[in-house]
Design goal:
The complex is a heterodimer. Chain A is an all-beta fold. Chain A contains no helices and eleven strands. Chain B is mainly beta. Chain B contains no helices and eleven strands. The N and C termini of chain B lie far apart (about 35 Å). In chain B, about 35% of the residues are buried. The chains are: A mainly beta, B mainly beta. Chains A and B meet through β4, β5, β9 and β10 of A and β4, β5, β9 and β10 of B.
């Protein structure tokens, strides 16, 4: 119940295209869902996060879509750029806890 | 504001030794969490400290321990190192409670030979 399943493991998108990464969870006690971006040799950087009372959140080219009934959430990167090439992690956090449960990561490559 | 800092950035140790890693959180952040990142297991929660007390612990053996000081700086210690402990150890700091955002440091790359 503590797992967060992330897909795909790797993704190749052409420059200017839309990158979509999906995550699913089981634990209905999760109440905070962040996405992190990690470049080689760096720590994960918080990209965008959403609470389950909101179905969508947009920040610049990054959008989280959240489907509470399906227990799924996804990251959309619009107008993908080569600089977006990185590993992306979804995560979830239980109410009142600080522990983040992470998906396995998606290695995104944007071809120029 | 300065970000989360971790020292050292790289470390090579031998099996059986012990190691101490250090983390300085973002100024004003009192919660510090530690994570282990490996290619096989991904990012896994080790423990969280708040106000010098361990508040939450992940599923790791007792060889992994930590502490937090009154200035919120934190250290984690791994004793009797095993080859499988080779990983990137990440520290994250946050304001406890709302909002929940955790900000990660660059990590310490530990290699056990």
């Amino acid at each position: 119940q503590q797992q967060v399943k992330q897909s795909p493991q790797s993704l190749i998108v052409q420059k200017g295209g839309i990158s979509i990464i999906n995550c699913a969870y089981e634990n209905t006690a999760f109440d905070y869902f962040p996405w992190y971006q990690q470049f080689p040799g760096k720590g994960p950087a918080l990209l965008i996060a959403i609470r389950p009372d909101v179905s969508e959140k947009k920040e610049g080219r990054f959008t989280i879509s959240f489907n509470k009934s399906a227990k799924q959430f996804s990251l959309h990167i619009m107008d993908s750029q080569p600089g977006d090439s990185a590993t992306y992690f979804c995560a979830a956090r239980g109410q009142g806890a600080q522990k983040l449960v992470f998906g396995q990561g998606t290695r995104l490559t944007i071809n120029p | 504001k300065a970000g989360v800092t971790q020292t050292p950035r790289y470390l090579i140790k031998t099996r059986g030794q012990q190691v101490t890693l250090s983390c300085s959180p973002i100024s004003g952040h009192r919660s510090v969490s530690w994570y282990q990142q490996t290619p096989g297991q991904g990012l896994q929660f080790l423990f969280e400290y708040f106000s010098e007390t361990q508040r939450n612990k992940g599923n790791f053996p007792g060889r992994f321990s930590g502490r937090q000081f009154s200035n919120s700086r934190s250290e984690m210690n791994v004793s009797t190192l095993e080859l499988g402990d080779s990983a990137l150890y990440l520290c994250a700091s946050s304001l406890r409670g709302n909002p929940y955002e955790q900000y990660f440091g660059p990590g310490t790359r530990l290699t056990v030979t």
